[in-house]
């Protein structure tokens, strides 16, 4: 029997339903690092043949893990350990710097690019007057092919070229023009998905998600980035060490 498959051997002396035993063992293997984000799981048939269980039992175990965000099931390609990203809270890092160390390619799909007047919230965050325009970038953030966040970034219109968004990443572009983001404040808040967010993140209206609001500052303490990111909870894991 395959070494990883052997980790899932149900305990006949345990009265816990077998599908819950399987789900618990898979979750434990992920938490211990024996299975990593993107690793393929055995198929339902492999579990049936290895442990002499019914297909329905294997399917229930996978459904349980899919519901709590441990795995992704892709019709035609198999079942995989879901990505889980742990942003370095004390450090300022880009989306790419967060995703790629986990073995995923960071991708952004540009949904909207709009020059407009600022809202009251944006004027306060970016220290602008109502006569100063902003540029709003709406991007779908992906780890590989998995959409994990919908991001609205607002910057003073003077920062971006009139021709549109550069092909390079936003943070790389800001660095190239001598306006790097060197400090940022972030706030985290639970939110409920509305129709526009649910549409892009393939979730139901009313489902919970995480809203991360960031204000980025240049070396001269000028705020030039105000970003709101609606993030799928199951792909993010925040940890912060506290000291007395």
TrEMBL record:
<feature type="domain" description="HTH gntR-type">
    <location>
        <begin position="16"/>
        <end position="84"/>
    </location>
</feature>
<dbReference type="InterPro" id="IPR050679">
    <property type="entry name" value="Bact_HTH_transcr_reg"/>
</dbReference>
<dbReference type="InterPro" id="IPR036388">
    <property type="entry name" value="WH-like_DNA-bd_sf"/>
</dbReference>
<dbReference type="InterPro" id="IPR011663">
    <property type="entry name" value="UTRA"/>
</dbReference>
<dbReference type="InterPro" id="IPR028978">
    <property type="entry name" value="Chorismate_lyase_/UTRA_dom_sf"/>
</dbReference>
<protein>
    <submittedName>
        <fullName>GntR family transcriptional regulator</fullName>
    </submittedName>
</protein>
<keyword id="KW-0804">Transcription</keyword>
<dbReference type="Pfam" id="PF07702">
    <property type="entry name" value="UTRA"/>
</dbReference>
<dbReference type="GO" id="GO:0003700">
    <property type="term" value="F:DNA-binding transcription factor activity"/>
</dbReference>
<dbReference type="GO" id="GO:0045892">
    <property type="term" value="P:negative regulation of DNA-templated transcription"/>
</dbReference>
<dbReference type="GO" id="GO:0003677">
    <property type="term" value="F:DNA binding"/>
</dbReference>
<dbReference type="InterPro" id="IPR000524">
    <property type="entry name" value="Tscrpt_reg_HTH_GntR"/>
</dbReference>
<keyword id="KW-0238">DNA-binding</keyword>
<dbReference type="InterPro" id="IPR036390">
    <property type="entry name" value="WH_DNA-bd_sf"/>
</dbReference>
<keyword id="KW-0805">Transcription regulation</keyword>
<dbReference type="Pfam" id="PF00392">
    <property type="entry name" value="GntR"/>
</dbReference>
